């Protein structure tokens, strides 16, 4: 495909409806609601809402709890932001799938695909940044990176800039609208060459991250064997290992949830006619969606401080209300006396954590 065709958006094919491209590639599309369409919308809607709310809770916990004000947690918060964005993307997809797809314009269809592309790219690049950060800190025998907040902010901005660019690449021209012979089957308006490029790039990123974490684990285990008889900081070592286990669980679930879908896209891009990619497409999309659902559960399962912060956030309105109510439930204002009452940590309305220990026990 020439450079002119790549960025050409004025060909006559742009006047065709979306179902025209579906019919050309052989992907079934119906104007009538079928049983699996109701299942997709019925299950997809509550899952998307849970993804959005759960990751909002993670972001709030990272912002509120000062124990999480370190580069690794800022990146985990950004990971939650990517999952939050993924929840919005899936929600948009739920309301623009099935029979609704026929009513989409080409631009709306590209918006739907761009949102999914951006959320995946943001997650992948963020995980790469976390892998590099962990590699740098572990091999310099530190628990946290010395990266300044300004650099962390710039890194997060860079992650989202890459995500936006990758999401908009098909819209800017790397599509098959003006060359129907190159259209894919799973994504009928995407060029097969773009699917191959995107799938290979992400699978390569997966391989790099797995290699980095494997290298870190080998180093940490070897170092612990050598230093365990002589070290007086067992808690520090346990914290490092626990943090690494958490990050590995996040990476592992990400690879498990996204690899089947990327393989399907790769096979479709390579024109594998015997692979029956449409048969497994929906299942792979559901599995990918589950990744954004699982991450908040991993955070809460692995980190006691994170769980406690969740409780304080969720119980904060109720505790504020109880502060101004008497035994009968009637609200009253407290009367000031000469000496201020002693503070009770348990009943405090502060959202700051009580525990002074840090990091993913």
TrEMBL record:
<feature type="transmembrane region" description="Helical">
    <location>
        <begin position="72"/>
        <end position="93"/>
    </location>
</feature>
<protein>
    <recommendedName>
        <fullName>G-protein coupled receptors family 1 profile domain-containing protein</fullName>
    </recommendedName>
</protein>
<dbReference type="GO" id="GO:0005768">
    <property type="term" value="C:endosome"/>
</dbReference>
<dbReference type="InterPro" id="IPR004065">
    <property type="entry name" value="LPA_rcpt"/>
</dbReference>
<dbReference type="GO" id="GO:0009986">
    <property type="term" value="C:cell surface"/>
</dbReference>
<feature type="transmembrane region" description="Helical">
    <location>
        <begin position="152"/>
        <end position="174"/>
    </location>
</feature>
<keyword id="KW-1133">Transmembrane helix</keyword>
<keyword id="KW-1015">Disulfide bond</keyword>
<dbReference type="InterPro" id="IPR000276">
    <property type="entry name" value="GPCR_Rhodpsn"/>
</dbReference>
<dbReference type="Pfam" id="PF00001">
    <property type="entry name" value="7tm_1"/>
</dbReference>
<dbReference type="InterPro" id="IPR002277">
    <property type="entry name" value="LPA_rcpt_EDG2"/>
</dbReference>
<dbReference type="InterPro" id="IPR017452">
    <property type="entry name" value="GPCR_Rhodpsn_7TM"/>
</dbReference>
<feature type="transmembrane region" description="Helical">
    <location>
        <begin position="194"/>
        <end position="220"/>
    </location>
</feature>
<dbReference type="GO" id="GO:0005886">
    <property type="term" value="C:plasma membrane"/>
</dbReference>
<keyword id="KW-0325">Glycoprotein</keyword>
<feature type="transmembrane region" description="Helical">
    <location>
        <begin position="113"/>
        <end position="132"/>
    </location>
</feature>
<keyword id="KW-0297">G-protein coupled receptor</keyword>
<feature type="transmembrane region" description="Helical">
    <location>
        <begin position="38"/>
        <end position="65"/>
    </location>
</feature>
<feature type="compositionally biased region" description="Polar residues">
    <location>
        <begin position="344"/>
        <end position="361"/>
    </location>
</feature>
<keyword id="KW-0967">Endosome</keyword>
<keyword id="KW-1003">Cell membrane</keyword>
<feature type="region of interest" description="Disordered">
    <location>
        <begin position="329"/>
        <end position="361"/>
    </location>
</feature>
<comment type="similarity">
    <text>Belongs to the G-protein coupled receptor 1 family.</text>
</comment>
<feature type="transmembrane region" description="Helical">
    <location>
        <begin position="249"/>
        <end position="267"/>
    </location>
</feature>
<dbReference type="GO" id="GO:0070915">
    <property type="term" value="F:lysophosphatidic acid receptor activity"/>
</dbReference>
<feature type="domain" description="G-protein coupled receptors family 1 profile">
    <location>
        <begin position="54"/>
        <end position="299"/>
    </location>
</feature>
<keyword id="KW-0675">Receptor</keyword>
<keyword id="KW-0812">Transmembrane</keyword>
<keyword id="KW-0472">Membrane</keyword>
<keyword id="KW-0807">Transducer</keyword>
């Amino acid at each position: 495909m020439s450079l002119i065709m790549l960025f050409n958006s004025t060909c006559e094919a742009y006047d065709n409806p979306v179902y025209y491209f579906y019919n050309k590639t052989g992907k079934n599309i119906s104007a009538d609601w079928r049983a699996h369409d109701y299942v997709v919308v019925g299950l997809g809607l509550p899952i998307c809402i849970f993804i959005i709310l759960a990751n909002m809770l993670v972001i709030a916990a990272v912002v509120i709890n000062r124990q999480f004000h370190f580069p690794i947690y800022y990146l985990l918060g950004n990971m939650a932001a990517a999952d939050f964005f993924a929840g919005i993307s899936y929600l948009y997809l739920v309301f623009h799938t099935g029979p609704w797809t026929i009513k989409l314009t080409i631009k709306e269809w590209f918006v739907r695909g761009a949102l999914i592309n951006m959320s995946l790219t943001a997650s992948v690049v963020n995980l790469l940044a976390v892998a590099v950060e962990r590699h740098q800190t572990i091999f310099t025998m530190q628990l946290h990176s010395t990266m300044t907040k300004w650099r962390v902010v710039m890194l997060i901005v860079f992650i989202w800039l890459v995500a936006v660019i990758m999401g908009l690449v098909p819209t800017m021209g790397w599509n098959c609208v003006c060359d129907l012979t190159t259209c894919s089957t799973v994504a009928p308006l995407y060029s097969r060459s773009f699917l191959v490029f995107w799938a290979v790039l992400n699978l390569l990123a997966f391989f790099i991250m797995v290699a980095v974490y494997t290298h870190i684990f080998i180093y940490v285990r070897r170092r612990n064997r050598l230093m365990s008889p002589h070290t007086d900081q067992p808690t520090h070592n346990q914290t490092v290992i626990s943090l690494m286990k958490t990050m590995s669980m996040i990476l592992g679930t990400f690879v498990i949830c996204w690899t089947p879908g990327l393989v399907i896209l790769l096979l479709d891009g390579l024109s594998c006619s015997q692979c029956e990619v449409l048969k497994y497409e929906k299942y792979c999309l559901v599995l990918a969606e589950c990744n954004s659902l699982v991450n908040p559960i991993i955070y809460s399962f692995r980190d006691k401080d994170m769980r406690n912060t969740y409780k304080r956030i969720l119980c904060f309105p109720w505790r504020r209300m109880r502060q101004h109510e008497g035994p009968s439930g009637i609200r009253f204002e407290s009367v000031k006396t000469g000496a201020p009452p002693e503070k009770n940590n348990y009943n405090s309305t502060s959202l700051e954590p009580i525990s002074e220990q840090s990091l993913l026990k």
